[in-house]
Specification:
Layout: E1 2-3, H1 10-13, E2 21-27, E3 36-41, E4 44-50, E5 64-67, H2 70-74, E6 79-83, H3 89-92, H4 95-101, E7 106-109, H5 111-124, E8 131-134, E9 140-143, E10 147-154, E11 161-168, E12 171-175, H6 193-202, E13 204-210, H7 226-236, E14 241-244, H8 250-262, E15 266-270, H9 272-283, E16 308-312, H10 322-327, E17 341-344, H11 353-365, E18 369-371, H12 386-396, E19 398-404, H13 408-420, E20 429-430, E21 436-440, E22 443-447, E23 454-457, E24 464-465, H14 467-479, E25 481-489, E26 494-503, H15 511-533, E27 534-536, E28 542-544, H16 546-565, E29 570-578, H17 596-607, H18 611-619, H19 630-644
Parallel strand pairs: 1-20, 4-6, 6-7, 7-8, 12-13, 13-19, 14-16, 14-17, 15-16, 17-18, 25-29
Antiparallel strand pairs: 2-3, 2-21, 3-4, 5-23, 9-10, 10-11, 11-12, 21-22, 23-24, 25-26, 27-28
Helix pairs in contact: 6-12, 7-8, 15-16
The protein binds zinc ion (2 copies).
One zinc ion binds near residues 35, 88, 178 and 405.
Length: about 650
């Protein structure tokens, strides 16, 4: 298997001048989420899916993760259109954002997905930016000079899911989209196996296949297999039933509604996306049920508990979702009762496990009966396992193979499955986002990569959270903030004691020491960097690079805190300029107890190679705690606490250096 080989194999080099199809996944590889794949031939570009991903822990203030679309922005005049495989957020959630940034003349997709995209576009105010076209199964769509795409029905956890057979000048590319082989899908629309086999027989140049469950052996169970189990739990429930699942798992939602009807319970819907999806599905006829099956949630008290079923969001423990609010006792209309049965008909996406556990804990503590976990048979995946993946390979019989939609290990395992099904190991590429597969009738090689990465959006979905902002937020959350205010004259003299403030910094360092460090950094920068930071502009006046000065002080302090305290707070330094000739402030660097000098020397001599520290050490003893010696640290804290007690001030409030 080839992975990350950036230059074409020599045997293929001769042919590399022939025109080729370039396939560039911009998202969805080495990850699950933000599926976006670019196909280009000649002057034509088409895009398959436009998804988003959700932030991981540590992405403070980020609500949505988008792929970097620089490449598409730069080539937007070549974009002929987009095709959408199905209506999940990781396939359609990014479209509105794209439409604000580049042109997509037309988007083709199944009715349910298009209805969802339409709703999002109206909300985002971009309805006039493109044309949405519904497709029907086996419909052939032409885009540009070089692409024709056939939509082939597959099965997944949402209705209306499709694989794509993309005919290009170099051959047919089979793009599975998300799929499983479910022979009894709740909407009665099975996989179009004949059509898949048809393309396999005609010859598929390359298969791009869903790798989500490539670590799981066997066939994935049919969606219908959860029906009898859910039925039993609902029938057994003494009081109200609260069910949570992904709103976008429309098959599950429709079965739950059917079960409510069967068990004589009325349905209350909670959560914006649940209301939205059920509304859309009923509108389009994917969900058939009488109007009076539903009741408005504010009337919940009018119904007997045994006739109530609440279908809600929150299966992933999302803090603001209905179930989480109920578990915290914060829901406006629903208070949990000890007779309630709560059913989690979904498994946590890795990364959400902890918040799901917390929600379950809170529900149990409130006395509810909670049914969750694999052993109850109340959830199945929407993605095929190894045997489904083999069946796809057997039907399409591809010459080349690219595992997509999965984390790296899943892609690699899927590659191995393909080899076991007869694909030549040299004909498989494990790509990363931004990598390019160059396809010609006889070869597939990895070409020049394009810019890829993430764009992080905040709650408004308009403000981009860039890398710098994100790393600043991480530092703030992990190590806090240090602000330094200093006054320096235009002739390079410190004219007042710096003011130092700590916010959220955990340290056993007292304010005096902190202030002294700061004074030293400033003195050092002024002594050693002043020349580089000033320009003589005219005979008398000099121009000072104040920003540069601030940065020098910040980075010096950052280095010292990292070295001495193993923390990396965000450091913000502001220098107040003062006129030349202002009386200098004499840093009081010598006031610390001399006995600590030795400890400091020991630490510094082993940890520091910065010559300024050596200078300072000699001139200025101080009591910096050697953090690798716990007993000394403890002693220092004691001393320091005694010292600071008389002033009655805490480290935080004692912001100014004693002058
Ligand atoms: Zn999906
Ligand atoms: Zn997906």
């Amino acid at each position: 298997m080839n992975s990350n080989t950036s230059s074409p194999a020599s045997s293929n080099a001769i042919k590399s001048k022939d025109p080729c199809l370039r396939v560039i996944p911009l998202g969805g590889l080495h990850e699950i989420g933000k599926n976006t794949c670019v196909f280009e031939y000649g002057e034509d570009i088409i895009i398959v899916d436009g998804g988003l991903a959700f932030p991981t822990d540590g992405m403070h203030g980020v609500n949505v993760v988008m792929p970097d679309t620089t490449y598409l922005r730069e080539n937007q005049n070549r974009i002929r259109g987009m095709v959408v495989t199905h209506g999940h957020e990781d396939h359609i959630g990014g479209i509105c954002h794209h439409l604000k940034n580049f042109q997509i003349p037309v988007i083709y997709g199944p009715p349910l997905a298009m209805a969802m995209v339409k709703g999002k576009m109206d909300e985002a105010g971009v309805s006039d930016r493109t044309t949405l076209q519904h497709i029907v199964p086996r419909q052939l769509v032409r885009l540009g000079q070089h692409f024709s795409i056939e939509f082939i029905r597959n099965t997944h956890s949402i209705s209306d899911s499709f694989s794509l057979a993309i005919t290009t000048p170099v051959g047919v590319i089979f793009f599975t989209g998300d799929f499983k082989f479910d022979h009894m899908p709740p909407d009665g629309q099975p996989v179009d196996i004949e059509r898949m086999a048809h393309y396999g027989e005609k010859g598929v140049l390359c298969l791009f296949s869903d790798s989500t469950n490539s670590e799981v052996s066997g066939f994935v169970s049919s969606e219908y297999s959860v029906f009898p189990n859910l039925d039993r739990y609902i029938a057994e429930a003494e009081g109200r039933v609260m069910l949570t699942t992904f709103a976008s798992s429309t098959h599950r939602v429709s079965m739950i509604i059917e079960l409510a009807l069967k068990n004589g319970r009325k349905v209350g819907l909670l959560g914006r996306s649940m209301l939205n999806v059920v509304g859309k599905c009923r509108e389009l006829g994917y969900l058939r049920c009488p109007d009076d099956l539903f009741f408005p949630i504010r009337h919940i008290r009018d119904l007997p508990d045994r006739e109530t079923l609440l279908l809600m969001t929150g299966s992933q423990g999302e803090a603001m979702a209905a179930l989480s609010r109920i578990s915290r006792g914060e829901h406006q209309h629903v208070q949990l009762k000890t007779t309630d049965t709560v059913i989690f008909s979904a498994s946590p996406i890795p990364g959400n496990t902890i918040s799901v556990c917390h929600t379950v804990d809170r529900l149990i503590r409130l006395g509810a009966k909670v049914i969750y976990g694999k052993e109850h048979g109340i959830h199945v995946s929407g993605h095929g396992c190894q045997e489904d993946q083999k069946l796809m390979l057997a039907l399409t019989k591809p010459k080349f193979f690219v595992p997509v939609h999965g984390e790296y290990r899943m892609q690699v395992l899927h590659g191995k499955t393909a080899v076991s099904m007869g694909v030549d190991p040299n004909n498989i590429l494990i790509l990363d986002n931004g990598d390019t597969a160059e396809l010609r009738p006889e070869s597939m090689v990895q070409g020049q990569s394009v810019k890829a990465g993430v764009e992080l959006l905040d709650g408004s979905r308009t403000g981009i959270v860039n890398d710098r902002v994100l790393s600043e937020r991480q530092k703030l959350a992990e190590d806090g903030l240090v602000t330094v205010l200093s006054a320096v004259s235009t002739d390079g003299v410190m004219v007042a004691p710096p003011r130092v403030n700590l916010r959220g910094v955990i340290t056993n360092l007292d304010a005096k020491t902190m202030a002294m460090w700061t004074e030293r950094e400033i003195s050092w920068v002024l002594e050693n960097r002043w020349k580089q930071l000033t320009i003589q502009s005219g005979s008398k006046s000099i121009e000072v690079d104040w920003i540069g000065l601030q940065r020098e002080i910040e980075s010096g302090l950052a280095r010292r805190m990292r070295r001495e305290m193993q923390i990396e707070p965000l450091i913000l330094c502001l220098v107040q300029p003062a006129p030349a000739g202002t009386r200098a402030y004499k840093p009081r660097l010598e006031e610390r107890a001399p006995e600590v000098k030795q400890q400091h020397s020991q630490v510094s001599s082993t940890t520091s190679n910065h010559n300024k520290n050596q200078n300072l050490q000699v001139q200025n003893p101080s009591n910096i705690n050697p953090s690798n010696n716990q007993s000394v640290v403890a002693k220092s804290i004691e001393t320091e606490q005694k010292e600071s007690e008389p002033t009655g001030r805490t480290r935080r409030r004692r912001s100014a250096v004693p002058s």
